[in-house]
Design brief:
Elements (H helix, E strand, L loop, with lengths): L3 H4 L3 E9 L2 H11 L3 E5 L2 E6 L2 E7 L5 E7 L3 H13 L5 E2 L5 E8 L5 E7 L13 E8 L2 H11 L3 E7 L5 E7 L7 E5 L4 E10 L1 H13 L6 E5 L6 E6 L5 E6 L10 E4 L2 H4 L10
Parallel strand pairs: 1-4, 5-8, 9-12, 10-17, 13-16
Antiparallel strand pairs: 1-5, 2-3, 3-4, 6-7, 7-8, 9-13, 10-11, 11-12, 14-15, 15-16
The chain binds fe (ii) ion.
Fe (ii) ion binds next to strand 9 and strand 13.
């Protein structure tokens, strides 16, 4: 097992969501997630401090792509060579936010893009919350693990397993953060949620106070996840996408994979959970 994505110091840079009403969705992210919104051709480009999102016309709640940045050109080259060797047929990908990007398609048809981050514009203001992880919904977590860990070299941090042995959730990392990519077994395919890392509990408080001024209620939390040990709140955007704001996510230098039971307490040590399967 070669941890190519991990060696490349890969991190979630941005995602692109489709929407039947991109303008409404972009306004929501502009207000709620404190992003500057700019229409560029057919898409809305949203930028806040260390967080980025693209919204394009399409089907509500459909993930257009998840985009990861590598630390440097050597890491990106190694990852592309690995993708080629594994038969993933990487294709050049034009990107608003990244240079030298390539795309591969995972077993669920999600487009995963890897590239080098372009410099963010100066002067982006707002609460702390870099784009941090993408969680997929899938019928087949093992296939997602085989693709991202087995073929691209993400490292599995934790698995949640049902009593019958079936894997319910996988958390995988591509740098020191507990997970940059996760997936939940679900009756649907696409995105389960995406997350912004506030870093500190008091910053989550500040996000909650900010959301309150917009009359946006929390959908779930505050709570603390078992895997990753992160504090969390969840809100939902007008299309029904779940957004997580997290803090204190576990930092991993090296440790064996942990296995967790599929139980409410695993997903929320403090209270009620939203089990996806
Ligand atoms: Fe999450």
């Amino acid at each position: 097992m070669t941890y190519t994505a991990l060696h490349a110091g890969t991190y979630l840079h941005h995602i692109e969501l489709q929407s039947s009403n991109p303008q409404r969705l972009a306004k929501f992210y502009g207000d709620a997630m404190q992003m500057q919104v700019e229409k560029q051709g057919a898409v809305f480009v949203c930028r806040g401090p260390e967080r980025r999102l693209i919204i394009s016309q399409g089907q509500d709640k459909k993930l257009a792509l998840g985009a990861f940045a590598c630390r440097d050109a050597d890491g990106l080259r190694m990852l592309r060579e690995r993708a080629t060797k594994e038969g993933l047929n990487p294709q050049d990908e034009a990107s608003v936010f990244m240079d030298h990007a390539f795309a591969v398609v995972d077993p669920d048809g999600n487009k995963a893009v890897f590239g080098l981050a372009k410099k963010d514009p100066e002067g982006l203001k707002g609460l702390k919350g870099p784009t941090q992880h993408l969680t997929l919904a899938t019928h087949d977590p093992e296939a997602i693990e085989a693709f991202y860990a087995g073929k691209l070299g993400f490292a599995v941090s934790d698995r949640v397993r049902k009593p019958n042995g079936e894997v319910a959730t996988i958390f995988a990392r591509s740098n020191h953060e507990h997970h940059t990519l996760a997936c939940f077994r679900s009756d649907r395919v696409g995105v389960d949620h995406h997350s912004y890392e506030a870093g500190d509990w008091t910053v989550i408080r500040d996000w909650c106070d900010h959301l309150a001024t917009l009359d946006i209620q929390l959908m779930w939390g505050p709570g603390r996840h078992g895997p990753g040990n992160n504090l969390f709140i969840f809100i939902v955007d007008p299309d029904g996408n779940w957004i997580e704001i997290s803090a204190e996510l576990e930092i991993i230098h090296d440790r064996p994979v942990k296995e967790w039971p599929h139980a409410e307490r695993t997903l929320n040590l403090w209270g009620k959970a939203i089990l996806r399967s």
